[in-house]
């Protein structure tokens, strides 16, 4: 049995991670931590085998965990993930991975040195479409990548002013547990607004698909209060041959379907990844092409896949098999750390002052 511990007993843990842990035949939630006693009690009441702790350090000291899921607000991700890795536990970290790229890269180095799994909860990357664009680009089937352009619209703006009820009502999300307003609206713990919460998804998707490093980054944001942004426009030079642009806004309103797509243009072909629908359409100059979409029963946003994939990889090692799947997840975390470089630059002193 893979023993899982949870850091942060909030909305997303209850909605995405805990159901996936409970549904996994080889895993059990054995411990949970949260500084808020009511939230902690509500979570462990629904998971009778789980012990309660007010801090991650206390939990790690006595729980003999195999996997740690970090679903606390963004500012606490790096510290909890580091504590887990230092206790020889593989870690899934919610997005945004960390607030600072140096923290993210440090965690990747630590995980590699100890041959542990480190993964970032980015469900858009767990679809057949995401796997196909990664394969097309890795195998060079679109030729040399020249340009990437992305648009990522969502209905998240109310979150950045702390109006959680309005957000949940608007997106019609079921919620036994609602997010605490500060998780998204308090700069001190959210690290920023839309860039941290949403633009991190689309930039991570580009870094994951291309495997590139961001060599030059320029960004402009709309700030509604100091450090709290609702829209971003980013221009990147990627390692290799490509340039990229990303426009991302939390101000989309219901009525016109939000666009969430990334287009990849190469010297021999092009591809469009629709993140919202989890589809990929691609074509090459020599007449090849394809369309990928979720299969029957597959979600376009498989939010339980990050934790179940990490559990599977840890279980493989436990059974005496190769740790290659575990280390592949850690390689994915390195690509996610490059996205943190991009997002961090949006909140640089200059950008905030402007
Ligand atoms: N991948 C996704 O699609 C997705 C979706 C929603 C949220 N998230 C991420 O999940 C994380 C949590 O978001 P949420 O919506 O569940 O928020 P939430 O406010 O519902 O939950 C956060 C919980 O963490 C607790 N907490 C605060 N400080 C802590 C600490 N130091 N250690 C442990 N717990 C602490 C809070 O008491 C709260 O119960 C955020 O990083 C958010 O960006 C990801």
Could you characterize what this model shows?
This protein folds into two domains: 2-124 and 302-324, NAD(P)-binding Rossmann-like Domain (Rossmann fold); 125-301 and 338-353, Dihydrodipicolinate Reductase, domain 2, CATH 3.30.360.10. It has 13 helices and 14 strands. Strand 8 (214-225) and strand 9 (228-238) form a beta hairpin. The model has no long low-confidence stretch (mean pLDDT 95). The protein starts with a strand and ends with a helix. The strands form two sheets. Strands 8-9-10-7-11-12-13-14 form an eight-stranded mixed sheet, with helices on one face. The protein has helices spanning 11-23, 37-45, 56-63, 77-86, 101-113, 128-138, 164-171, 181-185, 187-190, 194-210, 305-318, 324-346, 349-353, and strands at residues 2-7, 27-33, 51-53, 67-70, 90-94, 118-121, 145-153, 214-225, 228-238, 243-249, 260-266, 269-274, 279-284, 289-292. The longest helix has 23 residues, at 324-346. The protein has 354 residues and is of the alpha/beta class. 50% of the residues are buried. Residues 7-13, 33-36, 39, 71-74, 76, 94-95, 121, 123, 177, 179-180, 183, 197, 303 line the site of nicotinamide-adenine-dinucleotide. Residues 2-120 form the Gfo/Idh/MocA-like oxidoreductase N-terminal domain. InterPro entries: Gfo/Idh/MocA-like_OxRdtase_N (IPR000683), Gfo/Idh/MocA_Oxidoreductases (IPR051450), NAD(P)-bd_dom_sf (IPR036291).
